[in-house]
Design goal:
CATH superfamily of the largest domain: Reverse transcriptase/Diguanylate cyclase domain
CATH class of the largest domain: Alpha Beta
Helix content: 25-40%
Number of helices: 15
CATH architecture of the largest domain: 2-Layer Sandwich
Distance between the termini: 74 Å
Radius of gyration: 24 Å
Shape: globular
Strand order of the largest sheet: 5-6-1-7-8
């Protein structure tokens, strides 16, 4: 299919977590709301309403800094179960507009509507209908970027936020990109940006027309690719297969530096547990487990291990991640600031061999039961005994078992 015949939409729910909280609590409408961790520890901003963003608050910013910038902000702790429910409603709406939906994250997705737009009377009519459906059935605003490829659609969706709609007509990609700052291009981080700006390249138009020798000097072998992307060129298809995602995982920044191995193991299991559940929800299994550890001086170490048999069981993931943690701590046993687990080499899960493997069959049945309980209660209340949390002093006192 020629680019001119292709229409891709990037759909991005505006300030998703914060908007979800305003949806649930209408009295917060028009007020600066920040969703994230505690400002008294190492909490970070997960999302903020545009009223808070006007004060300079941004996602991933330390919460303490966000509160200094916007002291009147209302702080709300994240509610993952509620956000997942809204995300599922969002996905149901998207599926009505195209069979080709690539979910990127909980609040954004790509749609290939090349074969759908005529049914709606044109691409603009389709896009406006999509926005109206999301507003009516999810209760949130969605910004849409519409273009002939994923890169342009992604950038276009951010140009008219919030509640935006930007359609980039075929043949106008380079002109649309030309005045934008180079930082708008995905993949250009702070270091690349500094190198390009030092060479006098500040806009995507300048990058698109930069001479070969200059790009070779500034960006090395990546220069030609950057120039093509700055012109709005992208051949990636929308992938709706369940295994399109390359990896998934979780990480946790501790409120205080952690030294005790028992505390690290408990946190590691929780991360593996969440990762395993995420795999099973998507019908995926992994053959690579990676560990990420950041010390108190911000030194970051990663280790990974691959194996032959795919798994979606947190028990398997934890066993491997625990061995990787042993290796890391054997070389340096200092206070830990962050711990993360990621699985990769994803494939569609298959449990046919479980019928001939009693251990695997029991493990799958156990995790299926755990998933059902977690779905009903909104939390995983079943964990190995060694990781069961001790009651708080208040809870122990209420039971007459308070230690003194």
């Amino acid at each position: 299919m020629r680019d001119a015949d292709r229409w891709i939409i990037h759909a991005d729910l505006d300030a998703f977590f914060a908007a979800a909280e305003v949806l649930r609590r209408p009295e917060l409408h028009g007020r600066p709301v920040i969703v994230g961790g505690s400002p008294d520890g190492r909490g970070v901003v997960a999302s903020a309403t545009y009223e808070a963003r006007r004060h300079g608050v941004r996602s991933a910013m330390p919460m303490a800094q966000a509160v200094r910038l916007c002291p009147e902000a209302i702080i709300v702790r994240p509610d993952g179960a509620f956000y997942r429910e809204l995300s599922q409603r969002f996905r149901v709406v998207l599926d009505d507009f195209s069979p080709m939906v690539e979910v990127v994250s909980i609040d954004e997705a790509y749609l290939d509507v090349s074969n759908s737009e005529r049914l709606f009377g044109g691409i603009e009519t389709l896009a406006r209908s999509l926005k109206e459906r999301v507003r009516a059935e999810v209760g949130l605003a969605v910004s849409l970027g519409v273009a002939t490829n994923k890169l342009v659609a992604k950038i276009a969706s951010d140009l008219d936020k919030p509640d935006g709609l930007r359609i980039v007509q075929p043949g106008t990609e380079a002109a649309t990109f030309a005045p934008l700052a180079i930082e708008r291009l995905p993949g250009i981080g702070p270091k690349a940006s500094a190198r390009l700006r030092s060479a006098g390249i500040t806009t995507l138009g300048e990058l698109a027309n930069a001479p070969d020798l200059l790009l070779l000097d500034v960006a090395g072998g990546d220069g030609a690719r950057l120039r093509a992307r700055a012109r709005g060129e992208d051949s990636r298809p929308v992938r709706s297969e369940p295994d399109a995602r390359k990896s998934l995982g979780r990480e946790r920044t501790f409120d205080h530096d952690v030294v005790r191995r028992e505390e690290l193991d408990r946190a590691l299991y929780e991360l593996c547990d969440q990762t395993g559940a995420s795999l099973r929800r998507r019908g995926l299994a992994a053959t690579t487990v990676a560990l990420k550890l950041r010390y108190d001086d911000f030194t970051t170490v990663t280790r990974q291990h691959s194996f032959e048999r795919p798994t979606d069981a947190q028990q398997d993931i934890f066993a491997i991640a625990g061995e990787l943690l042993d290796q890391v701590l054997a070389k340096r046993c200092d206070p830990v600031r962050l711990l993360g687990v990621r699985v990769a080499s994803l494939t569609t899960a298959s449990h046919q061999l479980d019928l001939w493997d009693d251990h695997r069959l029991r493990l799958r049945q156990l995790n299926a039961a755990i998933d059902r309980i977690a779905e009903r209660t909104g939390a995983n209340v079943i964990v190995p005994a060694r990781f069961a949390r001790s009651p708080t002093r208040r809870e122990a006192g209420m039971n007459g078992n308070e230690r003194r």
